[in-house]
Design brief:
Layout (H helix, E strand, L loop, with lengths): L2 H8 L1 H23 L3 H11 L6 H12 L3 H33 L8 H43 L5
């Protein structure tokens, strides 16, 4: 069976996971290309600091802007395995419905539901892993930028 066959067999939950994957990877690529080098961000923060404002507050404001979109990536990483688990439950439910309707005489009666269960579990994990890695990478990167900015600029605070 090819990949499209697996996707089709996984049903609507796999389509939801694919949709979430597209959204998540769009944000991930956006972050990879829009988060410039640390020194460029710190230079931008230096330019935006107003003499009358708190340096720490201004740095935190700029860092918060860098975190835009990361909540979506984190939520996709968290929700994907749960959707896979939901697919598992749906697949097992389908299996029991088939057993109830047709009996246990033929083992292939419940194999379709088990296949759905496994496919959705696999899809949920496949979607979750890269999103969790990307989220951790970006948070680490932004934390480093914040620490460097505070180290360079904290002496200017009012």
């Amino acid at each position: 069976m090819d990949i499209l066959g697996f996707i089709d067999k996984g049903g609507f939950i796999v389509y939801i996971l694919i949709f979430l994957n597209i959204i998540g990877f769009t944000i991930i690529f956006w972050k990879f290309f829009t988060l410039p080098r640390k020194h460029q961000i710190i230079a931008r923060i230096k330019q935006t600091i107003k003499p009358t404002s708190s340096v720490t507050m201004q740095i935190e404001y700029e860092v918060k802007k860098l975190e835009t979109g990361l909540t979506i990536i984190k939520n996709i990483a968290i929700i994907s395995p749960l959707l896979g688990l939901l697919g598992t439950v749906v697949g097992i439910y389908i299996s029991f419905e088939d057993i109830t309707a047709k009996g246990l005489g033929d083992p292939t009666v419940f194999s379709g539901g088990i296949a759905v269960a496994l496919i959705t579990t696999i899809a949920g994990i496949i979607v979750s892993i890269p999103h969790q890695i990307a989220y951790n990478h970006f948070i680490s990167m932004i934390d480093t930028i914040e620490v460097l900015a505070k180290k360079e600029l904290v002496g200017k605070e009012d």
